[in-house]
Amino acid sequence: MPGTSPAEALGAGYLALVGLELPDSARDALLAYVDLLHRWNKTYNLTAVRNPADMVSRHVLDSLSVLPWLRGETLLDAGTGAGLPGVPLAIVRPDLQVTLLDSAGKKIRFLRQVQRELGIANLFPVQARLEDYSPPAGFAMIISRAFAELTGFVAASRHLMQPDTRLLAMKGRRPDEEIARLPAWIRVEAVQELFPPGLHEQRHLVIMSLSA
What we know:
By secondary structure, the chain is α/β, with parallel strands linked by helices. It has a domain at 64-210: Rossmann fold (3-Layer(aba) Sandwich). The protein has helices at residues 6-18, 24-44, 52-64, 86-92, 105-118, 150-157, 176-180; strands spanning 74-78, 97-102, 123-127, 141-144, 166-171, 186-194, 203-210. The protein has a seven-stranded mixed sheet with strand order 3-2-1-4-5-7-6, with helices on both faces. The longest helix has 21 residues, at 24-44. The mean pLDDT is 94.
């Protein structure tokens, strides 16, 4: 959103996404997260996006574009990186328990700082590889922006899936060729086009579950 501040881009973008004004507490927390990401990025290289206003559109609003398709009370963000989409979702959905999973220590250190400094009580950073992760309880949803291939995402998530678990894969262009390579035990429920404000790129959400 050229010429706009991060706060302006965030407020207008959230209104466009959900049709509601962003509560002040959530707005302040999201902007504080962007500020932390911007500052830590100078040393830890957490994202290729350098400008805070661009972080709002390319990261925060992109993450929040999946809000209408969230179901249940627990979410695992697999390969979360700098906390995307998990941190923005946890901020605007304080009723949602969000686990942030990544194998990189520097990213988990950053996310623990985010959790402490912003006081996000429903956020839980964990350092582990997805295929090795053994949580005490399952998740209603497992989401990722990080996996290059759908087959890799579903294979690494299989041991965590329960009959009602949904996999949510955030992708760029509609991944029809990847969908065709999915194993028979996975069912594609929907491929939803996303329209994050200020991001003029194709974005899609692939929603999957265990085949009956």
